[in-house]
Write a structure and sequence with these properties.
CATH class: Alpha Beta
Order of helices and strands: EEHEEEEEEHEEHEHEEEH
Strand content: 25-35%
Shape: globular
Distance between the termini: 53 Å
Number of domains: 1
Radius of gyration: 20 Å
Number of helices: 5
Number of strands: 14
Strand order of the largest sheet: 3-6-7-9-10-12
CATH architecture: 3-Layer(aba) Sandwich
CATH topology: Trna Endonuclease, Chain: A, domain 1
Helix content: 25-40%
Largest sheet: 6 strands, mixed
Length: about 190
């Protein structure tokens, strides 16, 4: 950009990946709170299992050093209409595909185990200014049947369930769960 007297200034936008996903998580946390307050479901964000090494008590118990005790599974778990559910929130900056590197191998194995035991596992993906519920079964099938390192956006549109933002709720993912799993015998007698 050129200013008067031919002074040139350039600005480089800094990209901070530290809190990427917090907007999506905030909307999901709002929904969890709404569902709990209105007795619709009991779903909580799971804490990351950490071991504390060093704490600074001079500044209000600030953790200076910590380590991950074990790999974290998925972000949220709980119960909805008698079914155990567990899911992870993922934001994607790419416009064309969702990188599978965003999901760790132990998380995929964990999803497989939940499904094997009759639970519901899925991802909530924020991509291209939309929110989608992507069933764990579809994710696992895609991974096992493709050599790709990402899921094309067209596949997310085809297999995913769009989630709506609601001012009072946040992201209304319970509606997405009902839509996604109604055809397999879950939630047949529920009101939308």
């Amino acid at each position: 950009m050129k200013y008067p007297n031919n002074i040139k200034k350039s600005y480089k936008k800094e990209i901070n990946y530290k809190n990427r996903g917090m907007d999506l998580e905030g909307l999901i946390n709002d929904a969890c709170k709404y569902y709990l307050e209105h007795d619709l479901a009991i779903i909580y964000k799971k804490p990351t299992p950490i071991g504390v090494v060093d704490v600074d008590y001079k500044h209000g118990a600030v953790i200076n050093k910590a380590y991950f005790k074990e790999p974290s599974t998925l972000d949220y778990n709980g119960i909805f209409e008698g079914k155990y559910i567990e899911f992870d929130a993922k934001e994607c900056q790419s416009k064309t595909s969702f990188p599978l590197s965003n999901i760790h191998d132990h998380q995929i194995r964990h999803m497989e185990n939940i499904i094997k035991h009759g639970g519901i596992a899925f991802l909530i993906i924020s991509m291209n200014d939309g929110y989608y519920l992507f069933k764990g079964e579809d994710l696992i099938e895609f991974i096992h049947n493709n050599e790709r390192k990402s899921i094309p956006y067209s596949v997310i549109l085809e297999l995913g369930y769009p989630l709506k933002y609601n001012y009072n709720i946040g992201i209304d993912y319970l509606k997405g769960i009902k839509d996604a799993y109604k055809g397999v015998g879950y939630f047949e007698n529920t009101k939308d």
